[in-house]
Write the structure tokens for this entry.
Amino acid sequence: MEVVPAAVKKAYLSRKFKRRNRSILGDFTLTFFLGLFGLFSVWPLIFIINNAFKPLNEIFIFPPKLFVQNPTLTNFQDLLIIIGNSWIPMSRYLFNTVFLTAVGTAGTVIIGSMAAFPLAKYVFPGSKTMSKLIVYSLMFNGTVTALPNYVIMSKLHMIDSYWAVILPSIGSTLGLFLMLNFMVQVPDALIEAAKIDGASEFTIFWRVMMPLSKAAWITLIILSFQNFWGTTGGGFIFSEKLKPISYALMQIVNAGVARTGVASAVTLIMLVVPVAVFIFSQSNVLQTMATTGIKE
């Protein structure tokens, strides 16, 4: 049995003890600053929730108070009255939003994943150039691409339809970028093993790549969901019966100062669904953001 010298053992324990002390101090400092920044981040959310239950006299008080003093449901009751008097049923607005969100999100995930697979795992003429163009395209925001998208949709005779909103979002390179950088991390040995077993390209994509890229496409679902849930149709949809619910609620908000309380209720309603979706899927989002951009 090998005997460890006492001096070596003492030095090792001393070093280990010091590391442990530094680790505890570092963890405490990191936790403190993360908690501090988290408090600043959650502050607007707390303010929105409280504002939705404030009467008008508390909403207009200066300086504004964070927490409600006399909670009331009047804002939500007024919102229901306004919705009931709308000449387009609110159920129609809700259907439009659900359709845009479901079809647009599914299309974004499927098209983005199928386009990312060959770029991530196969080398062909122009593949590197395409990958660079995808990165460059992320520099252009929606304001820059709005006019080209409108021209293309006009040429396709799709203005004032659901597809005028869905197709440009499906063609966005953000989803392709997320899926591409995640699929690159999947070992090539898994694809080779699947080919030896006789799997087709589609089988490899659907049975191997997609399950291993779960965190990426869940993140893409969340981002796409938030995009479609909050869309108002912009300059692509003009027919009132095709407008999403966010447009109808924004019209209520813009009616004047008297509806400030109703506007607070609307803000909370539009915020609840995206926040809930993000909370239930945050672990996958963090995993995707941690691996996106890492190369072998």
User: Anything to note?
Assistant: Confidence is low (pLDDT under 50) at residues 15-19, 292-296. The radius of gyration is 26 Å. The CA atoms of residues 13 and 54 lie 59 Å apart. Residues 6-51 form one domain.
